[in-house]
Amino acid sequence: MIAPVPLTLFVLVIAGLSAALAAIMARAMQWGPVASALVMVTWLALTGALPFLFVWLDLGPAGQFPSFALTLVLVVLLGLTKPGHRVVAANGLAWLAAIHVFRLPLEYVLIQWNGAGFMPEQMTWRGDNLDVITGLLAIPAAVVIARDIRPRLIAFAFNALGLAMLVNIIAIVALSSPTPLRALLGGYQTKPDVLVGLYFPTVWIASVAVAGAVFLHVSSLSYLIRQSRHRTSAVPE
């Protein structure tokens, strides 16, 4: 049983992040607020239905990984291509960095769930999840970038660090779930197992929180690298 207060906070975090993602997509794609909101609500509905689909298909714990892998591939491709570049160009690196502040309350939720026995310690800042650092740095990084103080360097460092933290989290999840991979690599043996992808609404940790953060980081890094290449090619010989 998930404690109601952290669960309420979690839903609020997801709602806030979803609104922010819809807003930046609306500005970049010129969809309009209603169309962007409908796209985000559709994504929430589709991914929110996955746990019920897993139960119906009797997929077990392993069912959460293929859908998450496909989601990651999708957001990385979007971040590396025109949609991601348009998001950065339309909204700015500072605003995209500021959105990552959502990771602070999310990490607080994970700590509370750990105390309630729903989440293993390695998924929190008491264990091996250091993603709280990204949340703490989000606003300072955004302010420095907005003030044009070495903006490219700060933006690159912040996004590279944040992406590395997400890779670490994904590895922790893979090694904390009851799958052959954990047995093969000698993963975490602490309980409970990480099964957030099998329950509603915690499935949104992967499909909204992690996927959204990956998209923002990949879009920003890809944009910065592309700009750097253009500047280099423009330098006269």
UniProtKB/TrEMBL annotation:
TM spans (from-to): 6-25, 37-57, 63-80, 92-110, 130-146, 153-176, 196-225
Keywords, in A-Z order: Membrane, Transmembrane, Transmembrane helix
Name of the featured protein: Uncharacterized protein
Originating species: Roseivivax lentus
Domain of life: Bacteria
